[in-house]
Design a protein that fits this description.
alpha/beta; 17 strands; binds pyridoxal-5'-phosphate
Length: 446
């Protein structure tokens, strides 16, 4: 019997014993194509020799040095590298060990900024419904994922949640995408006015919504309007790119495609590609300068911030992405992948929407395409599809509650940037088979 508290206490998952390229092999010798990069993590696949070599070399030099005593060359170089390629205005990096830690740090940094500049009355965050920012209490509070929040609600800080930008279900038939974006920005402005414009610290949003909605980009112009609203009220904009960032959508940062720059940005998953638990907050010069001029220290910290081996892995991942022109490949192969998905699944009776960017795609499943009616959540279609896909040696990232935390199912895909076109074809083939048998089993049961 396992002593690990696994994700479910009623079953032990398969034992992963090796990983090479886009595949993971289990103890029984079965091989799986990692079509979701785990949870949009493994951007360079598994066992990449450059990353392993960089980590080995760093361990041989020094594996750990506490940041209250030392900095390291590798962490300094990573920070230089991240800022050199960051959106305009970003000047500094706070290195952590994952996405939730990055979000927590960004929330505290945003609050401290206002304390430092003499606006301590700002104490409220605004987030969006149907979003996920992590499972620690602050991150869970700003997130808008109903089922993840429910039982912990009494422990969470009070946050206002506005509508997500979810075109498939949110845009009215008589609205253009731009008008829809305008409407949502007005909703945000109203929420700010309701709280009091001088009481709000920040608005936080995923640039492309990941796990909760299944790779949903915003409509054109939405983030520009959001930026204007935030600026009008002196509110910070935090973009959470833990999942959608670091090349996943075809540009290093997804927000580049929105034509705006945030004040704070969180990154993690693809930053270290799964080789090390590493994340970061990119902070604007404005914020860091204010703290420097004020108290002189960001009042935060963890034992493993700036970990040298994490930094070595992340730096090596960035170098491989650049050397191998992988952002360009993600853009080109992303178009190829979306064409194959649409060709194969676009006409499926139970596929309502296929959306995404780069190598980050979501397939939303419906019982009825015309009315966009979702399947009964009790049927747990997403879980069936995950099991069918695993049986076929395919790792995908399906989730339920797409629409409102309860109804709706989608499958998310985030293949490694290094996947060949033949591997992308195989992913689509196995996914289609898994969706076919998952949906067919529901019809047989009905
Ligand atoms: C957008 C986003 N933010 C934050 C997190 C939390 O990251 P972690 O699981 O590394 O704590 C996730 C994880 O899926 C995420 O998708």
């Amino acid at each position: 019997m396992t002593k690990i508290i696994h994700r479910t206490l009623r079953a032990t998952p398969a034992y992963a014993v090796s990983g090479r390229g886009v595949t993971i092999t289990d103890r029984e010798g079965k091989t799986y194509i990692d079509a979701s990069g785990g949870a949009a993590v493994s951007c360079l696949g598994h066992g990449h020799p450059d990353i392993l070599a960089a980590m080995h070399a760093q361990i041989d030099r020094i594996a750990y040095a506490h940041t209250s005593f030392f900095t390291t060359d590798v962490a300094e170089e990573l920070a230089e590298d991240l800022i050199a390629h960051a959106p305009p205005g970003m000047g500094h990096v706070y290195m952590v060990s994952g996405g939730s830690e990055a979000v927590e740090a960004s929330l505290k940094m945003a609050r401290q900024y206002f304390v430092e500049i003499g606006q301590p009355q700002r104490e409220h965050f605004i987030g969006r419904k149907q979003s996920y920012h992590g499972n620690t209490l602050g991150a869970l509070a700003v997130g808008g994922n109903a089922w993840r929040r429910q039982q912990f609600a009494p422990l969470l800080i009070h946050v206002t949640h506005v509508s997500p930008c979810y075109e498939y279900r949110g845009r009215e038939p008589n609205e253009t995408p731009e008008q829809y974006g305008e409407r949502l920005a007005s909703e945000l402005e109203q929420a700010i006015q309701q709280v009091g414009g001088d009481r709000v610290i920040a608005f936080i949003a995923e640039t492309v919504v990941g796990a909760t909605l299944g790779a949903v980009p915003a409509v054109p112009g939405y983030f520009k309007r959001v930026r204007e609203v935030c600026d009008r009220h002196g509110i910070l904009l935090i973009v959470d790119e833990v999942m959608c960032g670091m090349g996943r959508t075809g540009t290093l940062h997804a927000v580049e495609q929105e034509g705006i720059a945030p004040d704070l940005m969180t990154i993690a998953k693809g930053l270290g590609g799964g080789y090390q638990p590493v994340g970061a907050v990119l902070a604007s010069t404005k914020i860091v300068d204010a703290i420097k001029r004020g108290s002189g220290m960001f009042q935060h910290g963890h034992t493993y911030i700036g970990h040298p081996v994490g930094a070595a892995a992340a730096l090596a991942v960035q170098k491989v992405i650049r050397r191998e022109g992988l952002l360009d490949k993600v853009r080109q192969d992303g178009r190829y992948f979306s064409d194959r998905l649409r060709e194969t699944l676009g006409g499926h009776a139970n596929v309502g929407d296929i959306r995404g960017r780069g190598l980050f795609w979501g397939v939303e499943l419906v019982e009825d395409r015309a009315s966009r009616r979702a399947f009964d959540p009790a049927l747990r279609l997403h879980a069936k599809i995950k099991a069918e896909a695993m049986q076929r040696g395919l790792m995908t990232y399906p989730m339920g509650g797409t629409i409102d935390g309860k109804h709706g199912d989608h499958v998310m895909l985030a293949p490694p940037f290094i996947a060949t076109r033949a591997e992308l074809d195989e992913i689509v083939r196995r996914l289609a088979a898994a969706i076919d048998s998952g949906t067919a089993s529901l019809k047989r049961a009905a």
